[in-house]
Design a protein that fits this description.
120 residues; 3-stranded antiparallel sheet; two-stranded antiparallel ribbon; 5 strands; 18% strand
Length: 120
């Protein structure tokens, strides 16, 4: 899953906790990369928990859960949530350099295959 804000994709994970943050925007699970987290106001679009106000939400199946207070609620249907996470994020259409998200993903997969198969 690419970064909600800039569209960059995660590279091979390192051991330990991930520096990427999860959240929910318009009832959809999103990831935010470490670079975007350094920008002021990066979390303004994230939904917060109705009980405790935490932004530490995840979406699983048709439920949204707060990982801090464990409140679980049914997710709103897509037509009830205004827009989708693709609105406002670069990953929705084409990247800033003119390539599409599909092109970037294809390049990333090819690079990963080259690494795994030790091709240069």
């Amino acid at each position: 899953m690419p970064c909600y804000s800039c569209g960059v994709r995660q590279s091979d994970p390192e051991r330990g906790p991930s520096p990427w943050k999860r959240g929910v925007v318009r009832e959809h699970l999103v990831l935010v990369c470490p670079a975007c987290q350094r920008r002021a106001g990066w979390s303004e679009e994230l939904q917060s928990c109705a009980r405790c106000g935490s932004l530490h939400l995840i979406r699983r199946l048709d439920q949204v859960e707060c990982l801090d207070c464990r409140l679980v609620r049914e997710a709103l249907p897509d037509d009830a949530a205004v827009g989708g996470p693709a609105e406002g994020g670069t990953h929705a259409g084409s990247a800033r350099d003119g390539s599409t998200a599909a092109d970037a993903l294809a390049d990333e997969v090819a690079s990963a295959l080259d690494r795994v198969l030790r091709r240069r």
